[in-house]
Amino acid sequence: MKVIYFQVKNAGEKLKKIVQIATLHFEKGEPLLILAPNASAAVYLDALLWSSPQESFLPHEIDQSELLALTAQKINVNSASAVLNLCQETVGISLSPQLIYEFEDLSFPETQQAFKKRFGDYRQRNFTLILENLN
């Protein structure tokens, strides 16, 4: 299993990358599960994906089986092998991910600490860890 992580300095960078990752999977026809930390965040992401990218939108559903699915329930509702984790916790093996996207959020000490724990958990499970540049 592979974890690709991105260092972000602010919310704007993170939101832009979320849209880029979702767009990439949508265009390739590859299911993506987006794990939100709570229902409010899922609703916010829902609005973001319906309005982004600016020239179109990304069809998706909350808690339903779609190519792009959002959930705060930690359940793989669309049987995706790729998971975009926006939670403070490590992605569980029960979701059967082959690819996990993570953010190292440098904007707050709390988010940095949570990432360090997740990074350590993935390393302990022998995942391949890859730092990608924001593009």
Tell me what the structure shows.
The chain has helices at residues 11-28, 39-51, 109-124, and strands at 2-8, 32-35, 61-62, 68-71, 82-85, 99-105, 128-132. The model has no long low-confidence stretch (mean pLDDT 88). It is built from three helices and seven strands. It has 135 residues and is an alpha/beta fold. The chain is globular, with a radius of gyration of 14 Å. 35% of the residues lie in helices and 24% in strands. It starts with a strand and ends with a strand. It has a single domain, classed as Rossmann fold (3-Layer(aba) Sandwich).
What layout of secondary structure does this protein have?
Blueprint: E1 2-8, H1 11-28, E2 32-35, H2 39-51, E3 61-62, E4 68-71, E5 82-85, E6 99-105, H3 109-124, E7 128-132
Parallel strand pairs: 1-6, 1-7, 2-4, 2-5, 3-4, 5-6
**Which structural class do the helices and strands define?**
alpha/beta
Tell me the radius of gyration.
Answer: 14 Å
Indicate the CATH topology: Rossmann fold
Largest sheet: 7 strands, parallel
Name of the CATH architecture: 3-Layer(aba) Sandwich
Total of domains: 1
State the shape.
globular
Order of helices and strands: EHEHEEEEHE
> What distance lies between the first and last C-alpha atoms, to the nearest angstrom?
23 Å
Helix content: 25-40%
Number of alpha- plus pi-helical segments: 3
Strand content range: 15-25%
CATH class: Alpha Beta
- Secondary structure: number of strands: 7
Q: CATH superfamily, called what?
A: DNA polymerase III subunit chi
- Order of neighbouring strands in the sheet with most strands: 3-4-2-5-6-1-7
Task: Give the uncertain stretches in residue-range form.
Answer: none
- Mean residue pLDDT: 88
